[in-house]
Amino acid sequence: MIEVARVERQQTDTQILTGNEAAAEAAKLARVGVVAFFPIGPSDEVCEELVKMIRAGKLDARVLDLPNERSTVNAQIVATQAGVRSIFATNSEGLVFAYQQLFWSAYARVPIVVCVSHRAMEPPTVITPDDHDTIIFRDTGWMQFYCENPQDVLDTLLQAYWVAERQDVLLPAFVTCAGWEVSHGSSPVAVPTQQQVDQFLPRLQLPPGQDFLSPEFDFAQFYSKRPGVTRGFHPAYMELRYKVDRALNDTAKAAIKEAHQEYVRIMGRGYGGVLESYKTDDADVVLVSMGNIAALARNVVDQLRSAGAAVGSVKLRTLRPFPGEELRGLLGKAKVVLVLDRNPVYALTHELRSALYGMNPAPQIAGRVIALGGRDFTSLDLAELCYEAFQIARTGRAEHEVQWRFRVAKG
Questions:
Q1: For residue range 19-42, what is the model confidence (pLDDT) as tens digits?
Q2: Are 315 and 235 found together in one domain?
Q3: 10 Å Cβ neighbour count for 270?
Q4: Are residues 108 and 254 in the same domain?
Q5: Which of 182, 204, 241, 249 could hold 19 in an S-S bridge, CB 3.0 to 4.6 Å?
Q6: Same domain, 172 and 298
Q7: Directed axis angle between helix 150-164 and helix 19-29, to 10°?
Q8: pLDDT tens for residues 64-98?
Q9: Which residue range is the domain that position 49 belongs to?
Q10: Reported confidence tier of residue 223, pLDDT bands at 50, 70, 90
């Protein structure tokens, strides 16, 4: 580990990048060969930056400028099945437009990666973020990574390719961040060298049955074209869906942890795999969040710890696969788990409640819907919610298992 840190200091180039620029830089380092492009803010900057790199001779790739998001994701599928790594960036209404192709890519085991700079769903039309636009696709078979800052975006995108393209995984992935707040917010980013990335991320190599340029491509699996298999019935349909389920919830989870370990070995930094815990060992109240809300949570944990409050936080890096077993191990001693849902369907609260079901003793779970459509949510807001959580810990009962936070606290 000391040697890795020394190499990091000598070779890493620190740049000031937005989240979108960090995603583009990661895609360049991953040597993508196809940039699939249909614009929608605040995600379009990712592919715009890649086009600039291509024109400057910094990236050898082809731009596919297509008429809508469905055709763009379809182009990604075709490129990937031909053995070419690709990238696309979209969100909200654009992502919904590609709904059918999202299912197809997962069920066909095509490891595409899509960057999402979150934008709240319409109506009314807004360009500000919450994470509902990817939450609604949690049942599609896609891996979902939630990033905190531009550094996290760059590192996670490289790891997403590593995991998605593993021949025992072969599933697509979203790599997401908060629109505007992270996508267009600038911060220092340690950019690895091309040599480091090449050492970490091998070139895309599909198994022959998945590569449609191979004579061994399995047409029957995708298109029902062999004797005994009709378009209306496939005898192995249920088994194929089972393989997707196991690849997502078992194999991918193990691969994400392995990718993290390998990334730490080569780059000298990491984020804990599927989740990252902070001061949870003796915490009575634990905050659970995703994305850039986790940075606010850690800051509030430090403030409350300085006042003697036993509070900690957990940042989920992945919603799919959901780290239920890992959370059971972390939260067994907590009295209250305060779940911060940046979506209107309490997705994280429901997932956590399901994962902790049957624990004895089990913590009280208090779900709070926050910051929808870019609504401000401050450290004072979170501190107030923490004090409510400590009240629940004292009484042993949550008056509201799920509640919406509308008011913005003023300093």
A1: 999 999 999 999 999 999 999 999
A2: no
A3: 16
A4: yes
A5: 182
A6: no
A7: 40
A8: 999 999 999 999 999 999 999 999 999 999 999 99
A9: 2-212+228-267
A10: low
d(CA 368, CA 294): 14
CATH number (domain holding residue 100)? 3.40.50.970
Q: Tell whether 220 is covered by a domain.
A: no
Q: Calculate the alpha carbon distances from 368 to 181, 388, 395 in Å.
A: 20, 11, 19
Lowest mean pLDDT segment, chosen from 16-25, 116-125, 166-175, 230-239:
230-239
| CATH code where residue 371 lies | 3.40.50.920
Residues 6+ positions from 60 with CB-CB distance below 8 Å: 31, 33, 54
402-404 β-sheet, strand order:
275-278, 311-316, 285-290, 336-341, 364-369, 402-404
Residues 6+ apart with CB under 8 A from 7: 268
Q: Are strands 318-320 and 187-191 parallel, antiparallel or unpaired?
A: unpaired
| Structure tokens that stand for 225 in this block | 């074209």
Q: How many domains does the chain have?
A: 2
Q: Is residue 399 part of a domain?
A: yes
**C-alpha pair distances (Å), 67 with each of 43, 190, 331, 410:** 16, 35, 47, 45
Same domain, 182 and 312: no
Euclidean distance between CA atoms 18 and 185, whole angstroms: 5
Q: Which residue has the tokens 């192995």?
A: 236
